[in-house]
Task: inverse folding
């Protein structure tokens, strides 16, 4: 029997499975415009694979596989060691994942070349690659805010050393923590307001309408849809039909909406086609990360 409340386990698993579902759903329409999606699919609402990556049905992209690599490093170390995380990212890259973001690739290659665990601050590092993979850190640090911040910033700056990337990743992790603690939407809105107050560029209401890989656009897209629609399936369908960086936007919204509704409420029609190996790894990893997060600091 689990040593944590069943509700916590369900919400955490909902976050991780929801992340993978959003990734798989959005991958089909990544880099398409809303008009192109409408012409080809009407409303895109089924996990069918294909897209520019020509994925098999149920497959995920670098969003999920890079998160799993980070999570596995935490589990194998039974805690945090940034060099172990870096080595996990190297192994991930050398395994030739289906897709690799340019900034992530550049950071990993820098580490291979010189062993450095962080890049220099760079205006070109304001993409969403660090934000997309931080869920395992949030799950493993749910009871320790200081540890959460330190681990998050170390993994962010390995590839994306930019204040907007840092701020976004911290804010999303804090929203995950709020959801895992069973807090209501007012608590999550307060975290979002704090982010916007500190960095007004993230203002998401009214929605600016851009859904690209720039971390500001990702935050605006995900937060707008998260607060606008409470139903998991409805909000995921809405966000991926924005197109552009649909897999990452779908994954991050799936993470938040999945933590909100829990694994038991996720659409069975999507879960049954999600890659079975990915489902198994997520279930195993979620339990292990929660166990780490429940230990005394």
Result:
């Amino acid at each position: 029997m689990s040593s944590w409340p069943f509700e916590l386990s369900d919400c955490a698993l909902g976050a991780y499975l929801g992340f993978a579902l959003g990734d798989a759903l959005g991958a089909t329409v990544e880099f398409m415009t809303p008009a192109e999606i409408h012409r080809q699919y009407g409303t895109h609402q089924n996990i069918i694979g294909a897209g520019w990556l020509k994925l098999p049905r149920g497959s995920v992209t670098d969003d999920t596989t890079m998160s799993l690599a980070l999570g596995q490093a935490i589990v194998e170390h039974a805690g945090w060691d940034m060099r172990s995380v870096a080595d996990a990212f190297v192994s991930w890259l050398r395994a030739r994942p289906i897709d690799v973001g340019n900034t992530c690739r550049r950071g990993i290659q820098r580490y291979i070349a010189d062993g450095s665990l962080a890049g220099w601050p760079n205006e070109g590092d304001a993409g969403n690659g660090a934000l997309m993979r931080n869920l395992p850190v949030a799950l493993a640090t749910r009871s320790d805010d200081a540890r959460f911040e330190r681990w998050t910033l170390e993994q962010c700056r390995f590839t994306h050393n930019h204040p907007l990337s840092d701020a976004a990743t911290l804010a999303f992790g804090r929203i995950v923590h709020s959801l895992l603690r069973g807090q209501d939407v007012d608590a999550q809105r307060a975290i979002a307001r704090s982010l916007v107050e500190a960095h007004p560029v993230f203002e998401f209401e009214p929605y600016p309408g851009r859904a690209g890989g720039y971390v500001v656009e990702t935050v605006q897209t995900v937060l707008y849809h998260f607060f606008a629609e409470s139903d998991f399936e409805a909000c995921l369908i809405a966000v991926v039909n924005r197109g552009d960086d649909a897999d990452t936007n779908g994954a991050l919204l799936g993470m938040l909406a999945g933590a909100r509704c829990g694994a038991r409420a996720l659409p069975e029609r999507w879960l049954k086609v999600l890659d079975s190996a990915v489902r198994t790894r997520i279930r195993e990893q979620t339990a292990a990360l929660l166990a780490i997060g429940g230990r005394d600091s």
